[in-house]
């Protein structure tokens, strides 16, 4: 089975799509990949700061939601990162040349659009090593984003 381009799964555009490819997807999980290069957004001479791992995880969650939506014949919708719990990273940055696999697993999903995902980032070249980073990501995807934003701004 051919996997879709990850850019079709996330509601981001241009350089704000931080993930490179979709590696695998299942009923409750997804794995995406990013290769850290000097041209990677947020990269300096040494790599990408570890705090960007939270956004890698959030975009992998968005890709999971986008994949589910397209599988149902629905459009990809905007969602919101509410927060992260216990983000831990073993290094201060992801080094230039690193190939990262971002794994997300749906821990819970409410009918109201709230969800929580167990996430970790692995070095794709050393998949048996301990994860480079771990966290629980909490998200919200309203049924109608425009209506939700209107209510929030009132």
UniProtKB/TrEMBL annotation:
<protein>
    <submittedName>
        <fullName>3-hydroxylacyl-ACP dehydratase</fullName>
    </submittedName>
</protein>
<dbReference type="Pfam" id="PF22817">
    <property type="entry name" value="ApeP-like"/>
</dbReference>
<dbReference type="InterPro" id="IPR029069">
    <property type="entry name" value="HotDog_dom_sf"/>
</dbReference>
<dbReference type="InterPro" id="IPR016776">
    <property type="entry name" value="ApeP-like_dehydratase"/>
</dbReference>
């Amino acid at each position: 089975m051919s996997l879709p381009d990850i850019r079709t799964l996330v509601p981001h555009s241009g350089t704000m799509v931080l993930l490179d490819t979709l590696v695998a997807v299942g009923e409750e999980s997804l794995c995406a990949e990013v290769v850290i290069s000097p041209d990677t957004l947020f990269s300096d001479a040494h790599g990408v700061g570890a705090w960007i791992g939270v956004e890698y995880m959030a975009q992998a969650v968005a890709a999971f939601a986008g994949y589910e939506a397209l599988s149902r014949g629905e459009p990809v919708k905007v969602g919101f990162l509410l927060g992260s719990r216990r983000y831990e990273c073993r290094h201060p940055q992801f080094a230039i040349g690193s190939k990262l696999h971002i794994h997300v697993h749906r821990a819970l999903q409410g009918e109201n659009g709230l969800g929580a995902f167990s996430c970790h980032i692995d070095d794709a070249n050393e998949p048996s090593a301990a994860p480079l980073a771990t966290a629980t990501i909490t998200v919200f995807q309203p049924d109608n984003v425009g209506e939700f934003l209107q209510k929030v701004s009132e």
